[in-house]
Amino acid sequence: MAAMTQEAERKDWDTYFMDIAYMVSTRSRCPRRHVGAVLVQGKKLLGTAYNGAPMGVPDCSEEGCMIAEQLEIEVVDGVEKAVKKQRCIRTIHAEQNLLLFTDRIDREGSTVYVTDQPCWTCSNMLANSGIQEIVYHRAYPKDSEKVEKLMKAKGIQFRPLHGYEPPAQAGIQVLSE
């Protein structure tokens, strides 16, 4: 009877790997957003990464965010509008760190689980990395449409993990941008 109970509580693979991505995100010291990513080949975990300043360089919690302002054109109801966006440029994104610290041979045909939908820059990098699938939890609406088109053009499976709840230990606290 105990074996049946244990089996019933066992997490599916998507939940298991996304839980790991969220736990990895707890290493981030970014006050704006904690992002974690994991590289998986089959059922084997090959690498983890989170967003943060380059190694040996003070991070945002030590020296504050390094904010850059950019103007972006958004089309709303057929009308172009310039919108000022602020981005912290001190940190390397989790997906970028994952690509920096894993081997191409390991990425061929693999899956990346990431807490947040990749931005345009990370998506471009992932598209050339050899991966075959990206699974994410939190949406990033700003780049969503063009990222989805890119992934479709590259033949990379790109899917949100619906109904997922991060582990309580991840202590999710995200400031809106």
What can you see in these coordinates?
With 177 residues, the chain is α/β, with parallel strands linked by helices. The strands form two sheets. A five-stranded mixed β-sheet has the order 2-1-5-6-7, with helices on both faces. Helix content is 32%, strand content 28%. Strand 1 and strand 2 form a beta hairpin. The radius of gyration is 17 Å and the shape is globular. It contains seven helices and seven strands. The longest helix has 14 residues. The chain starts with a helix and ends in a 17-residue tail after the last strand.
Strand order of the largest sheet: 2-1-5-6-7
Main beta-sheet strand count, sense and barrel state: 5 strands, mixed
Number of helices: 7
Report the strand count: 7
Separation of termini? 49 Å
**Structural class, judged by helices and strands?**
alpha/beta
**H/E element order:** HHEEHEEHHEHEHE
Strand content: 25-35%
